[in-house]
Amino acid sequence: MAVGIFDSGLGGLTVLDAVANRLPDVPLVYYGDNAHAPYGVRTHDDIYNLTVSATQKLFDRGCDLVILACNTASAAALRRMQESWVPHDKRVLGVFVPLIEALTERQWGDNSPPREVAIKHVALFATPATVASRAFQRELAFRAIGVDVEGQACGGVVDAIEEGDLILAEALVRSHVDALKRKMPEPDAAVLGCTHYPLMEGVFQDALGPEVKVFSQANLVAESLADYLTRRPQMIGPGTESMFLTSGNPKQVSNRATQFLRRKIEFQQA
Q1: 119 and 191 in contact (C-beta within 8 Å)?
Q2: Is 194 annotated in the active site?
Q3: Residue 83: is its pLDDT beyond 70?
Q4: Which of 50, 58, 70, 265 is catalytic?
């Protein structure tokens, strides 16, 4: 009854923690493609091929449902995977939709036409590949009209977080917020479009100011997953064991993950 959670690196651990708190009885298999991270600077074809390979590893470990806890993979690979690769008895879900549903105050599964919403100006902070894909804008257009989105590619932030250099990460975040504000001086809301960014949510909020509502992903994804599994319990796969897998060096990744979550994490080679 395992659910798979995939990220190119360690950011998806923020989603895993939220899901584990929300669904404590569901075994979770986490796969980090640390050997090929970061994805945010790769081509779409490269991201697609790596994401398919990683997802197959999770299917092989008894997961019928895989969450792409990586915005870059969700943006660059998910739709293509769903249309041409995912087996009929498996599901692969991304992390954009729960965020957009919260932003537009729509309930899960609300397929009514797009409508006006209260928020008109949205700042999107994400990796270069996510911003370039315009996947967030595409998904938002299915649900809302009249919303202006300004994307800011936050180069360097993921690397700094993964290396544990939070001083550099904070400096980069503030620089990227300044750059965004030059393009959109008064956003109504900000979307943290990377699963690493919840660790810097306070810095984003401080740099943006208290009047800007900041949307982060982990808890929103966990709630959406709980709702999905309530409606489709058959998608809980046959796996029974929680585990952490990596394409990188297990000892090195374990040490970084332990620092990242501030609790002991042990990865094994995928």
Answers
A1: no
A2: yes
A3: yes
A4: 70
